[in-house]
User: What shape does this take?
Amino acid sequence: MIQIKKTGTHISFSKKNLRKVQNKYSQTNLIKIQKFLDKSLLKFIQQTVRSAEFYPRTDRGIATESCMRQNTGINAMHFLLNDPALFKAVERITGCKKIGCFAGRMYSLIPGRGHYDHWHNDIDVRHLRYVGISVNLSERVYQGGVFKIRNRFSKKITAQIANTGFGNAFLFRISKKLQHRVTMPTGRNPRTVLAGWFLPKKRGVSFMRLGSDGTVLTKMKTRRPDNRPVSRVQIPDEVVSKRTASGRLVVNAKTRICLRLDGIASHFWELLEELKDVKAVSRAIQKEYEVDPVRLEKDLKFYVKRLMFKGLLIRVKD
Ligand SMILES: [Fe+2]
Assistant: This one.
């Protein structure tokens, strides 16, 4: 239905399927999204979690948890989830008003650490929040750790979910009339998630320290341009991209250096992702378009050099 890959948001639902999830959300205030993160992205994020630094975080007596410090994984998730295509899909499912931003954090609830999560509603007077999301990043199946949502007044539980499937997610409604909580995981395995909210405004979320399109342009260290000829290339693990109205935005989530590729340049990138070989890309473009091969070769060299210079591509030895 909705899947996030290293190349951005991929959406496929039939009208019938959409109506079904809309009805389910309106009745229960929660909707499950199977395989929200694709295998390759999940594997990369889990690697970043393994080497992450965590700190104890307390939320005004509501909850305590082990929270992850900002790192490559969080940068990548913020970049990918701040995508108008995803916003539109969430708006269609939940019926919420226009989303302008996603903000979130990654955290673990670890059995035996005294972590807790009491009933609360995620209402923040400073930032209006429409819809919450939780994505399971755990590497092992945890016990307990059930998310419950209830009517604040009648106390009737409208939905509950353990969400133990790897990379699965669920969306839940934020409302003054509702409350939610997560029961503590039992057993040995922690419950590690990306949790966040879809918000109306692009600004006002200071902790994420990211711009409106989920990226921050940082100053590049001066690097010597590599003038050797390039044949095979590879996209580094930490590089993710998403579609924009005019092409594609590519970012290195580690350095936060990004490049906007418009028109034919974004097509170059998509072919490079698929074929990983500069000459094969050149052949594919020549099949598709009537272009001067010499000019094309020159353009391709230019883009590859530029992408390598910004750490968005790396050379692979033949
Ligand atoms: Fe919450």
Summary: Residues 2-208 form a domain with the Jelly Rolls fold (CATH 2.60.120.620). Residues 35 and 168 are 5 Å apart (CA to CA).
